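Cholesterol transport system auxiliary component, pasting as requested.
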Amino acid sequence: MNVNPKITLSARRLRVVATLALGAAASALLLAGCGALPDRPARAVLYDFGPGLVAGGAAAVATAGAPVAAGSTLALADIEASARLEGTQVLYRLGYADGNELRPYGLARWSVAPVQLVHQRLNDALSVRHTVLSPRESASMARSGGRVPNTLRVTLEEFSQYFEAPSASVGLVRLRATLIQTQPGGDRVLAQRSFTVQRPAPTADAAGGVKALAAATEAAVTELAGWVDATR
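Structure tokens follow.
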């Protein structure tokens, strides 16, 4: 049986063309599949109060303040707060919609919980005029028969960006401080006071809220430290 060489050649060409077409289609599908893969999820931006203190805050006091007075010792307890403020979410409220609801930013986090940030700033401010002890150090003094210093207990009641309008917000910080004297018969409250401070946010977003909360914290801490000096 004789085979027409022209027909055989045409069949081979058709097979080659078909193979190339299948390869191109497979490549197209592969590229389309790669394009359909989800993007890597965006990471949350981490915030803190910065490497130093804001102007007018405790840093200025530390530079020009009086040295620590002899025997001026104070125990600073861990700051207490609601469970929501013990997390690292940057929180805000929409006062013009529902001011009772705390909302978290999706891609903004504090580097540590706000109670830790506030505790560190308060410790720095108090250390300008006092020897500040931790609760463990104070308890150690008591066990060794030394004089037990007064204890400052602080509750962080509010720490959020409050939107008065969609484009206007403030950083709102509220602290309640209690100065306690430890006696053989039990603790005695020497004084108690609440501090509420707000500072305007430069922008209506998480970054602006963080700056406003840092400024409000510095103002509240400076005011609280002054109150401790006056109370003692």
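Note for the archive: Residues 1-37 form one domain.
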